[in-house]
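As the next step, I selected for study a record pairing a protein sequence with its backbone structure tokens, which the following lines show:
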Amino acid sequence: MKSLRQKMLAMAAVVAVSGLMMASVAGATDKLIVKPLSGTTNVLVTTDSGPTGFNYNTPKYSADVANQGGANTSQLHFSMTGADNGGYITSVAENNFYISSGAVFQAGAWIQKSTDGKSVFFGSGAAGFTAYLNQGATVGGAVTASPKLRITYDGKMGLGTLTPTSALQVVGLPTYADNAAATAGGLTAGAFYRTATGVLMVVY
């Protein structure tokens, strides 16, 4: 024999399903709307045609995600345990999209989340595609963004520079007199270096 609690849960489920069915039968534009306990702003909307919006009332895609209240912060979080670390997806402006690991974008700044002090984020912005690799930050502290690679919209790639002026520009190669000096300096076969006069060399 069912307990009173089980009967009440069953009745609640019937009422909830009936409410959704009534909305569907009535031909409502939005089939599912979720609001927070406080406030009237929708946090989830599924339209009659299928698109679902998160913090967005008029979704155009299968999943349309916006920032609540227009906050300047990351939108999606991925974590193995649910802890506030792992990976994030961010879009805070037109032509702006970043994927990050170990750091989140909050209130206009990158904030460290992983305890090892390391983070990687890369994506597109007004200047092109940029990849950052950072280390030494403390959890909860601001990340000093260290750009390592930039690809501009006109097809130039820069390593060690954000403003490449040729198809490939590398800044920061070590300087050695010859192959023996480069090897003694710790470079291994295949590594690039330059001489004092600017000649590009490869360790062999």
Notes: The chain has two helices and 16 strands.
